[in-house]
Design a protein that fits this description.
By secondary structure, this protein is of the alpha/beta class. Helix content is about 45%, strand content about 10%. This is E3 ubiquitin-protein ligase.
């Protein structure tokens, strides 16, 4: 394995790697195979030049450079063979070196060459051989057009990725937690799980609450042993004690004999009932008591069952091995467990430092953006800061678990990063991912993750194995979106929301005997609002609910209907209100719309229409503070509003542009001219034309240096650069942001003319102001509001393009297929799938336009959008029932009606298809904005 093999063809490389990977079954040999397969990829990892192991992996001599280039099949016109660097494209040869032993065989002169080669050049070498990208740093998009890279050019990349995935599968030893009791006869595949749930729902833990010895200012618990629901959260015990006055700190001079022992006479049953009744409490912001088992402080969102399993000395450690005994055989049910309570220490410095941190986040990114202005935008093919931050020789520090496959996973992550961000090494151009994200998914790890995330007992007890969130957040590409979304709800919010989400994906969990049922105990807060001036009321409602964590339910003034339907409509209406042009929040075209008021009169309202998605309107530095504060307040509310919608599994009707979604994931650093093209194709196209002039200038400068032109000759050549026969000066541009003449790109910008000599700076500043500096204060306010509901960092398990599904659900399909509709809908109470009316409905829905689809969904569910997964994921399923009438009444004279809370469509049995089309069309257009009993 230490020998270097000539790699003239891809097959030779594949066979060499396969012989090392597929034939070795021991971990040590599999690790060597991983190193052999990943040698080339590893060269792209290390950002430092002092680490020989990773920096030397792209090593070769001039001779093997030519050989590798010929065998790469990249079709790059022999660039690698004629390049100036001695290591231009030697990746394929080096990939055959077997592990670290092969590194020691490298020639010292080759080592020296590698260390002198800039990392970005090494990355382009790798991309050239494995993806067919250009070696020229001035080639827009790396020579890859918007249609993507030809499949033949990515075969090396996918081949290497496949070998690495095989190594991961051989090496990984991530445990799967199993809690199932033996399944009862006829219980089915989930019998064991439901038996365990029944056991936990019918048994209680015996706990002894004691005041911590270090504290004398709290009342001492004298109520004896407390029986606690094992699935109650630790914060439920806090609420129990707080409600009974045990969180009040006494004066130091207070005498012990003044303890109020009014609780002493409570029976175990009384305490048990109280504990169960509050076990669903979500906590209200600030905690007053903290709890300990031994020396361990317990997390508030941990179940009591899990806390005792982890920390109680009475619980035998042998019970907690990976195999895990069934819950009924655990010793924790036999012992009385002591839980200490003490006051939470108030720490004002923590608050101020947290506040300072928020403040710092507003200023430090701005400084960074200024310092890295030229390279950040990647206008001239310079280094990309996003690659600087993401390319690493190891997984992030957040991964604390140990496993033999971690080293290989770090290499897979390098490949995933290069696949997503390779274009930042070149001037901007429209590009697509060379390899789909699906190719990076690991089937074996996904199966393990799904086993854990779909086990109700794992979710109910909060017993996810640590490796799952750590690996998923460090390497989200390993798992499909649906798996990561389940994980997101399992780790981001309280247990009951996770159970509810699990129940939506597995409806059978809600059925069966009550003792075997998975039942979320969510606190709900009903709020009544008026349809007039709803945005102002929404701000009040959301601000009130943020600390309580309760589920929001909406009812409208003068309407008896409440529940899911009105609540979903509330999120849709507020979303529409946030798009009003008068708020001056978004860039885009203002469009006038005729609307009907609550009183029935007509009015004209202007909304912002952004064809590519909403993005904040840039604001000048010198904007009046009152106007800026108004904008910031709206964005702060929007952050809270959208976070609350995600927490409650509701959908907002706001199509945000990917550029804004990148901000939410901290990827604003990588925004550049290519993003302007996506945000505004017409304006971005103009900037791209101007950028072409900058590239011409750069090439002339490179040519002048190579051929020894004089300064006069160079300047003469540069002066001849034209755009459609016009010089840059003839375009009459100045240093203000196009479309926003009040925003100077630099001090006195309105008086500075753009020339060929400062055009590159002009383009950099335009991109900077449009995508970053001009929107930074708005986005900081959005993040600040969002973080008050739950940490925005929890979204890092997703990619920017996936966040629209997280916030908005499924995008409306261009066409609803009859088969999908039939499979997803449930006829009942007078109808079957063979009923004439049901078949009519399926045909009508399949012919609906996009706007008609939105109207139908708004009418039947309360929201104009479907959840992720479309109709199949609608919970409960759309149920079509026959609307009943008196014997002498004609169904053709009646309109359909709905029960939005359960997605019921009450459909008359119309005599013809056209009558149903007319009646349904009238209902979905006119039968909105009001909820009554039906």
């Amino acid at each position: 394995t230490a020998s270097t093999t000539s790699s003239k063809h891809k097959d030779t490389l594949d066979k060499d790697i396969a012989s090392k990977s597929d034939q070795h079954h021991h971990h040590s040999r599999a690790s060597s195979a991983a190193a052999a397969a990943a040698t080339a990829a590893a060269a792209a990892m290390d950002t430092s030049t002092g680490t020989a192991t990773n920096d030397l992996l792209l090593a070769s001599s001039t001779t093997t450079t030519t050989t590798a280039a010929k065998g790469s099949g990249a079709g790059a016109g022999g660039e690698a063979a004629t390049g100036a660097s001695p290591i231009n494209a030697a990746v394929a040869t080096t990939a055959a070196v077997g592990g670290s032993a092969g590194m020691s065989a490298l020639d010292p002169s080759v080592v020296a060459s590698i260390l002198k080669t800039p990392r970005d050049e090494r990355l382009r070498n790798f991309l050239h051989v494995f993806l067919g990208c250009s070696l020229d740093p001035l080639e827009p998009g790396g020579g890859v057009d918007g249609g993507g890279i030809e499949p033949s050019k990515v075969s090396r990349f996918t081949g290497l990725l496949s070998k690495l995935m095989s190594c991961v599968n051989q090496l990984e030893q991530f445990p799967v937690k199993v809690h199932d009791l033996p399944a009862t006869a006829g219980a089915g595949s989930r019998g064991g799980a439901t038996s365990a749930i029944k056991f936990l729902n019918t048994h209680q833990l015996k706990c002894n609450l004691q005041r911590d010895p270090s504290c004398t200012r709290l009342r001492e618990w004298r109520g004896g042993t407390v029986k606690v629901d094992p699935l109650a959260l630790v914060q439920a015990i806090e609420r129990y004690l707080v409600n009974r006055g045990y969180a009040r700190l006494r004066d130091h001079h207070h005498h012990h004999h003044h303890d109020d022992n009014t609780d002493d006479d409570n029976t175990d049953d009384d305490i048990d009932d109280t504990m169960q009744s509050i076990s669903s409490s979500q906590g209200s912001g600030q905690h007053k008591l903290e709890f300990l088992i031994g020396e361990h402080v317990l997390p508030y969102n941990m179940t009591v069952y899990q806390a005792i399993r982890h920390y109680s000395q009475e619980h035998s450690p042998n019970d907690d091995n990976d195999g895990e005994l069934p819950v009924s055989q655990s010793s924790i049910w036999l012992h009385t467990h002591t839980i200490y309570y003490r006051p939470v220490l108030e720490e004002p410095p923590v608050k101020s430092s947290r506040k300072g941190k928020v403040g710092g986040s507003k200023s430090s990114p701005k400084k960074k953006a200024t310092d890295t202005l030229i390279t950040d935008v990647a206008l001239i093919g310079g280094s990309s800061t996003i690659l600087d931050s993401l390319l690493s020789s190891s997984l992030p520090p957040s991964v604390t678990v140990k496993d033999p496959c971690l080293e290989v996973l770090s290499l897979v992550k390098v490949m995933a990063v290069l696949n997503r961000y390779y274009q930042t090494l070149y001037p901007p151009a429209p590009t697509k991912l060379p390899v789909t994200m699906m190719d990076f998914q690991n089937v074996k790890l996904t199966a393990k993750a799904n086993r854990q995330l779909q086990d109700p007992l794992v979710i109910m007890t909060g017993n996810l194995p640590p490796w799952l969130p750590q690996i998923a957040y460090a390497c989200p590409f390993l798992f499909p979106f649906e798996t990561r979304q389940l994980l997101f709800y399992a780790v981001s919010f309280d247990r009951d929301r996770a159970i509810q989400r699990l129940q939506e994906t597995n409806p059978e969990l809600a059925h069966g005997d009550s003792s075997e049922r998975v039942t979320p105990r969510l606190d709900r807060k009903k709020k009544t609002v008026s349809r007039e001036d709803i945005l102002k009321q929404a701000e009040t409602v959301i601000n009130e609910l943020v600390p309580s964590k309760a589920m929001l339910e909406i009812q409208y003034n003068g309407e008896v209907g409440s529940g899911l339907g009105p609540t979903l409509e509330f999120y849709a209406i507020v979303s529409r209100e946030m798009k009003k042009a008068e708020l001056e929040l978004w860039r885009g075209q203002s469009v006038a719309v005729e609307e009907e008021t609550v009183e029935g009169s007509a009015k004209t309202v202007k909304y912002v229409k952004a064809a590519t998605g909403l993005y904040p309107m840039p604001v000048a530095k010198n904007i009046k503070s009152a106007a800026m504060n108004k904008i910031k307040q709206k964005f702060k509310f929007l952050g809270k509003f959208m976070a609350k919608a995600v927490m409650d599994s509701r959908m907002v009707d706001l199509c945000l542009h990917d550029c804004m979604l990148k901000w939410l994931l901290g990827e604003e650093r990588c925004l550049g001219l290519a993003d302007v093209l996506a945000l505004d194709p017409q304006f971005g196209g103009t900037l791209r034309q101007l950028h072409g002039l900058v590239l011409q200038k750069r090439r002339l400068q490179d040519q002048a240096r190579a051929q020894g032109y004089s300064t006069v000759q160079l300047q003469s050549s540069i002066s001849g650069i034209m755009l459609d026969g016009c010089s840059v000066e003839d375009l009459s541009l100045n240093f203000t942001l196009p479309g926003y003449p009040n925003i100077d790109l630099k001090k006195g910008g309105a008086d500075i003319t753009v020339t060929i000599n400062n055009l590159d700076q002009y383009l950099q500043l335009v991109v900077e102001w449009l995508l970053r500096d001009g929107v930074r204060r708005q986005m900081d306010s959005f993040k600040e509001g969002f973080d008050t509901v739950f940490p925005m960092t929890q979204l890092l398990v997703f990619y920017p393009e996936e966040l629209e599904q997280v916030f908005c659900g499924s995008a409306v399909a261009a066409h609803w297929e009859i088969k999908v509709l039939t499979d997803s809908c449930k006829p009942d109470h007078g109808y079957t799938h063979d009923s004439k009316a049901v078949k009519y409905l399926m045909q009508i829905l399949s012919e609906y336009s996009s706007q008609e689809q939105r109207n139908f969904l708004q009418f039947t569910t309360g929201s104009p959008r479907l959840p992720v997964g479309g109709f199949r994921s609608l919970s409960p399923a759309l149920t079509i029932v026959r609307k009943t009438f008196e014997a002498n009444e004609n169904p053709d004279n009646f309109l359909p009606s709905v029960m939005t809370c359960v997605n019921y469509l009450k459909l008359p049995d119309y005599t013809t298809l056209q009558i149903m089309r007319d009646k349904l069309g009238f209902a979905i257009c006119e039968g909105q904005h009001s909820f009554h009993l039906s």
